[in-house]
Specification:
18% strand, 768 residues, alpha/beta, 7-stranded parallel beta sheet, 26 strands, 28 helices
């Protein structure tokens, strides 16, 4: 590329940055004006909130004024936030206005047109597009097209054009650091620069380095179920976040950020990805972990987490046929059939009690339920039962409101208590004082009977926990599950419930049964559901999530090779099971096989651990060979670990010591914390600090570190192929350096000869 071309491109960058600077100055002035207007309204609001409670006309007038003031404050706050978001976008754009350029020639045209692509659109005062948003339809050419005739999809249909040039830029602080022409999506030079950086505390957006297969994920708007199976470091999580940004752009009129929910593997990961969407000018979607979701739905119970169960499984053998059935689609189907066959006599109704006495008996409730048509859905019959109970409660309240004790209570009310009972909504509503007194009387009784009202509203008159036991006792079993094992599982569930605990295997089936019988549990507002690390979810859990978000399109992503909590499955097998269980019309599987995170030597080592590892394509980024450090004494091993830590800290910002379990993480921390500034992370932590971190591998899902030290990869600790997924996941967290410490002989996963010794640095201390 000529010096003249570079100068011309830099001149354009300067012009665009100048135009953005002028827009920043104007937007900043708009922000200051909006901020001042909001302050004035808030000040006026605080000065005029005295209320005349005693004159009916004044009460009505004051109430209307307050509502108008609140609406105005809300509108002005929203306007200020919109301007602030614009200001942030322009400031980010000024530093690096764009990263790509495409030259195109439309059919029938003699002249070509140059389009520049960045993280957001920028239009000058004459309505000329100086920068096109990477999500715009025509920008897809940059990611998918090769030179020559290309097509791109628009709302009006597919359009044809000729791609003459594709140029890539690396611009920082308004200066072009490098630029080059390419026929690929993103040239290796730009990828090498992006991937060679040290790890940040949070994930960065990848819009400048999106690959063609990632772009297919991002721009898919048709699939009801999109399954993304990607090897470790393939950029699947990054692509999913860009997908969310694209969907918000593509469906801006119909979709808001809080109509998208992402199930994250842990809280650390939630924080790690929290900057990606804001860097693209979008608000973050809702995020929740499976543990948080289940805890919220089982208030009052301690629900076992995936991590708790993983730790328990390390100590005890697992009855796999039993667990596989407990987590299967077949069990969920059996629950659905059972619930729809239950008669009024089969349901575990309970008394609604007040102050120790029966207020509504279970026999009365059962009789109410029985009177509704058996053809109706169970939840519909239950709702109609609730409505009838509410009706009878109102009758009881109306009768009790006439009691002497109620009128005595009214006579003793202060003015403030009286008006609180009346409420702002009913100020001036009653023409007759007797009507107002009657309303107050019913409010007093209603508040006294709130316990009964809550029991009806929340459906506490059906014991879902006992109902689940009843289901389990009659559930048909597959051939590989014995009756004895099933009775043991039922007894375990009953014991746990008695102590307000719930095993993870029972959570999704129990919720499913409760929702079908009682209703509720479904969020109809969510339009998109994303599940990360899908390989760690059971089919029963995924079926329940589809039930909980019935209108949402599903995007499931993961890596079957990183299955820490269950056996590995092929992507095709997973999709086949999902299609059958979820009854999806339009499903799609996209497989990402190229790994970008780690250096070539680390990826070469990691893929050699896997039976089908040759399917993984390693990005050719050079680096040091993985190091295996073998010591036969624990004290000597920790000295070697300390030595390796010092070496890694000299060149790396984050060093992670990854262990198989929490107990190992605690031991490492105890041995090293006196000599190193290190942090032991748990499942309650929300942020990832710089320096040395110690954590079990299941908390490192989705994360990456400059350097990884795998603790005690010995033959005793990693004895067989059942731990292949664990070791592969540990190794694939490392970006630049990987060290494996063995206390005793190395694991056969490393020493069996499957991994060429030439691909490792081995530091061996012979046993005395």
């Amino acid at each position: 590329m000529t010096t003249s071309e570079e100068a011309q491109e830099q001149q354009r960058v300067d012009q665009v940055a100048h135009a953005i600077g002028q827009r920043i100055a104007k937007t900043d002035a708009d922000y200051q004006a909006a901020h001042q207007e909001l302050r004035n309204v808030l000040q006026n609001y605080s000065e005029n909130t005295s209320v005349n409670w005693f004159e009916v006309d004044d009460r009505i007038e004051t109430s209307a004024e307050l509502q108008q003031q609140r609406a105005l404050v809300s509108r002005l706050t929203e306007n200020q936030n919109i301007i602030q978001d614009q200001l942030d976008t322009f400031k980010n754009l000024q530093k690096s206005p764009y990263f790509g350029r495409i030259d195109i020639q439309d059919p029938g045209e003699t002249d070509s047109e140059s389009l520049y692509i960045g993280t957001a659109s920028f239009v000058d005062d004459n309505q000329n597009f100086l920068v096109y948003d990477w999500r715009a339809p025509i920008s897809s050419i940059y990611y998918n097209g090769v030179l020559g005739q290309v097509a791109y999809h628009t709302p009006a249909g597919d359009q044809q054009t000729k791609l003459l040039k594709k140029r890539q830029f690396l611009i920082q602080d308004g200066q072009i650091e490098s630029m080059f022409d390419t026929n690929e999506t993103v040239g290796d030079e730009m990828l090498q620069h992006a991937l060679g950086k040290q790890n940040d505390a949070t994930m960065q957006n990848i819009v400048a380095t999106i690959q063609r297969e990632q772009n297919d994920i991002i721009r898919d708007t048709r699939s009801d179920l999109l399954v993304v199976q990607g090897v470790a470091g393939s950029g699947k999580t990054s692509a999913i976040l860009q997908r969310i940004a694209f969907l918000l752009y593509h469906s801006r009129r119909d979709l808001e950020a809080d109509q998208i929910v992402l199930f994250s593997p842990n809280r650390l990961f939630s924080h790690y990805i929290s900057d990606v969407l804001p860097s693209l000018g979008e608000r973050n979607m809702r995020q929740v972990t499976l543990a948080e979701f289940l805890t919220q739905r089982f208030q009052g119970l301690t629900v076992q987490t995936q991590f708790d169960r993983y730790e328990t499984d390390q100590q005890h053998s697992v009855n796999l046929p039993l667990r596989n059935f407990q987590e299967s689609a077949a069990l969920m189907t059996a629950i659905n059939e059972y619930c729809h066959q239950c008669t009024a006599d089969d349901l575990m109704f309970t008394d609604i009690r007040f102050h120790g006495r029966v207020f509504f008996s279970k026999e009365e409730i059962r009789d109410i339920y029985r009177q509704f048509p058996t053809a109706a859905a169970p939840a519909d019959r239950f709702l109609r039962t609730k409505n009838e109970l509410e009706k009878r409660l109102k009758q009881r309240i109306a009768e009790e409101a006439k009691a002497d004790w109620v009128h005595d209570t009214i006579d003793q009310l202060s003015d403030e208590d009286y008006h609180n009972l009346l409420g702002e909504k009913h100020l001036g509503k009653f023409e007759q004082l007797d009507d107002e007194i009657d309303y107050i009387a019913r409010q007093i009784v209603r508040r006294r009977l709130r316990q009964v009202d809550d029991a009806i509203y929340n459906g506490y008159f059906l014991d879902a926990y006992s109902q689940y036991t009843a289901f389990l006792k009659q559930c048909p079993l597959p051939e590989d599950v014995t009756s004895t094992d099933w009775q043991t599982a039922i007894a375990s569930y009953q014991h746990d419930i008695e102590f307000h605990h719930l095993a993870l295997t029972d959570a999704a089936p129990l919720l499913y049964l409760r929702d079908i019988l009682i209703g509720g549990g479904a969020n109809h507002r969510m339009q998109h559901l994303f599940v990360d690390e899908m390989q760690d979810y059971s089919m029963a859990q995924l079926i329940y999530l589809q039930h909980a978000f019935p209108r949402a399109k599903l995007t499931l992503l993961g890596d079957s090779e990183q299955a820490l909590f269950k056996a590995v499955e092929s992507p095709e097998s997973i999709l086949k099971k999902l299609n059958a269980a979820l009854n999806i019309k339009r499903s799609r599987l996209i497989t990402l096989r190229r790994s970008y995170r780690s250096t070539l030597p680390i990826t070469t080592f990691a893929k050699a651990l896997l039976p089908d590892g040759d399917q993984i394509e390693a990005f050719n980024r050079p680096g040091d060979l993985p190091k295996v450090v073998i010591r036969y004494d624990e004290a000597v091993a920790f000295k070697a670990l300390a030595h390796e830590l010092k070496l890694e800290l000299a060149t790396n910002g984050t060093v992670a010591i990854l262990t198989k379990s929490t107990a190992e993480a605690k031991l490492v921390y105890q041995k090293l914390h006196a000599d190193f500034d290190l942090t032991r992370l748990t499942d309650t932590d929300r942020s990832l600090p710089k320096g040395v971190v110690v954590l079990p591998i299941y908390l490192a899902k989705g994360l990456e570190f400059d350097s990884v030290i795998a603790y005690n990869v010995s033959a005793e600790n990693y004895p067989d192929e059942q731990l292949t997924g664990t070791l592969y996941t540990i190794a694939s967290r490392a970006m630049h350096h990987l060290t494996l410490l063995c206390i005793g002989a190395a694991s056969p996963l490393i020493a069996s000869g499957k991994i060429p010794q030439a691909d490792l640095q081995i530091e061996h201390e012979f046993q005395n």
